[in-house]
Predict the 3D structure of the following.
Amino acid sequence: MKRLYVSKLLGAQAFDALCPIRWEERLRLEAVLRDKVVAMEIINMSEELHEASNNEIIRMMRGMREGDGVDKAGELVKGVVEIVQTFNMLDFVMVLRGVDVQGIKGRIDDVYREV
């Protein structure tokens, strides 16, 4: 099953089929950056790249799976990416191991239940 998923979702055919989505998101990112440069605004590249990658993932999911639940799946992807990118004190301060100081464990549990 794993081989089938990998070949269908990550294979050359899927990669080529999703190329237009990646291209459009790249153009959208360039336009956003260009507009901010012209307006002389500060650009947070981490934020812009994060948004671009989320948009790309969600658009790829919509293109591959038509029907209900795709928007919810997109929200779950955003939630997972946000959790993964969050600095977790518990990874560095072992004394706090049993305490969910930042509420990250609760957010992980919420996303897990939704999935």
